[in-house]
Structure formats: structure tokens, C-alpha cells
Write the C-alpha cells for this entry.
Amino acid sequence: MASTGKIAQVLFENAIETHEHEEAMLGLVDYHEPDPEAMQNGENFVWRPAQQHAPVISGWDLTGKEQEIIEETYPAVLGTPSNDFVEQRADKMRDQRFWEDRGKESGRKQATELNRAIAAAMATQGSLVIRSNATSGYNFVSEAQAIMNERQGMNNKRCFMLNDRDTKLFSSDLAARQTLQGRPESDAWSKGQIGANIAGFDVFTGSFLPNLAGGANPATTVTGAQSFKPEGGSVDATTGVVTNVDYRSATIPVAASAGYNVGDKVTFGAIQSVGLTDKVATGQLMTFTVVAKPTGTSITVYPKPIAADDAALTETEKAYANINTTIANLDTVDRVNIDATNKSNLFWDKEAVEVLGGTIPAELFKQFSGMKVISHTMKNGQKMYMVYDGDIATMTFRYRLFTWYGITIKDPSRVGVGVTY
């Protein structure tokens, strides 16, 4: 019979190898591992700064026109570990192939769960939306390009992931395009890439994309005129307590919110998006995503609607505008995803999505009675851990194999969902 240490090592190595081979989403988003001591003191979340915006002030004499700097922030959260926790008696530990297979399956499930969790966060929290009956894959993808370009958001690396059925629908069109000839990166192709630089996107396929629930448009209305401004953190002058503000969200009073789903994509009246740089209206309705329903008469949406024509805002505050005019009393709230349910496709900018990695004090755990710890940093930067021990009274071996991460959609206005009908 193989030694316990050998069994553990075999299982762990197979889990790592399979996880790295199955990886799809993590390499297409930002990965960050914060200081573990700071995360402990911060209860496993940390406030991080968002991109700043600055006004352009015309004129020779700028006396009295000095502006502040607004540094918006968002909370990046570290979730709970994803585990494989097993106990086996000694008579189940004789076949090394059995443990190789278990390691492969554990790594596969860990990778799939990570992919699923990232995709689910994108589908729920991304604010861009396409609903299209296009039969051309290029036309479908280029609609996302047009939306993102006209919003003038930062462009680091854009990715588009198609579900299996829409991959089938668009595959013949995409396969005929020049960008696919020569298989640009053989390693990327083995991980689901089906095209490079198609309308500015690297295009992938994924079987783990979620459904987007919808339904008939509830068409409720806004209650009262709405004015929002960008906010940074504040410090209480008396106590010195720091208060942070999540720059992404706004809560809007409505006549009734019961008919909406978290994840719905909505518009308000005829409100249009604007280019983030030039503040010119795009001619397209601004879309938002519902992230919460605090009461029966309110919805919380991403991103916060900041109007370029809001007279209550300073020049610096207007530099953060993402809509052309303020949301007015009785503006209709219209749901865009009007299909009862539809398989989602996702598109995003790499820097708009962030995965935080967690770290445990592995050396400290090794000091616990009878416990062994193995850890490894995978090529994507994420750590995998395996903790194991034995019980002589029951002749059993236990192991806990896990990864630890959290997912944050740090810029919902650069993440979107596309559906076909």
C-alpha cells in the first residue's frame, strides 16, 4: 500500500494539473492577492480606488475655479473557501489510480466552480446588454464593440464568451474570418478560444454560462426627480472615523419593484448614455443592472446614474457623468431582458473584473497535532491548499483540498450580457 504522504501528493498534483488545464475565466480577468494581515483586520474585504475623472476648464483667468480630486472606491470581497472534504478508511487506500482519478475530478470541479462563479457575477452585475436576432457572429460581437466604444471606457483587453448553442449558431461565420486562420495561440485554443481580434474581442466558448431570467416588462415608474453625484471617502471631523462609499450603486425609488429580478437590465425613460471622455450623448439608451430590491418601492442599480446636465454638480463632479440628463419623476423603468429565460453570452474588459485570492498561514497549520499541509501557487497566481491527517482509532485518512477567492465586478459599465432570440 502506498504511504499516506505519497497518496496525498499524487492526489494534490493531479488536482493542480487538471485545474490549470481546465482554467478559462481566471486568465481573462484581473487577479490580485491582497496582504493577508490587512484582510484579517478588514474582515476579508478591502476598499480599492476606482479610475479618476478630471474636468477640462477653458479660459485664461482661472481665479476661483480650483477643483477638488474625487477618489471613488469600491469594496473588494474575499469569499469563503471552495472545498473537497473527504474521509476514507484504510481499506480504500490501496489503489493509487483511485487517488489519481479523485485528484483530477477535484481539480476539474474546482476550476468549473470558479468559472461558474465569475460568469454568474458578470451576468448579474454587468450593466451592458445586447438582445439580438443576428445570424452573423461578427454582427453579434460588433454590437458589443459599438456599445463599449461609444461609452469611451478604458480598453485593456476585451473578451467575449459565447454559450454552446450560440457558438453553434455563429461558428460557420466566425470560422470563415481571417482572424481565425493560423490558430493564433495553440494553448489558448485548447482552453476554449475560438477567435482572436473579432471586432476587437478575443472570443471564447464556455459551457458554464448562466441563464438570464426576465419576462414581460413590468414598466413601473420612478418616484421623484433623481440627482446623484460621485462620492469619495469621508473623514468625520470629530471622531476621525473614515466612511467609504461604493461608487457603483444608487438606490432609486419606484412605484413598485416586486416585478423585477436581481440581474435585470433596465432603462429609465429616454435617458441616454454619454461618452465618458467627451460627455456627448450616444443616441443609445443607457442601461443599468438591478443588483438589489431594498424595499417594495425601490431598486438598487449599477452604475450610479450621474447626469452631464445636472445643475447641482460641480465641474469635477460632472466629469464623472455617464448619462445625458437627470432621471425625472414618472420616468418609466423598462426591462430590456424580456425573454422568460435565455442562455447568456458575456463580454467584458479584463480590468473590469477582479478576483481576489486568499492566503492561509500554512506553516502555522503544520504545527497542529498530526496535520500536514501542502500548498502550491498555480500558474494563474491562485493558490491551492491540501490539509490532511489520520486517525489511528478509526484507521481513517481525511483530506481537505481547497481554493479561496472572491469575485468583484469593479466596473459594471464595462461588463455586459448578450442574448439571442
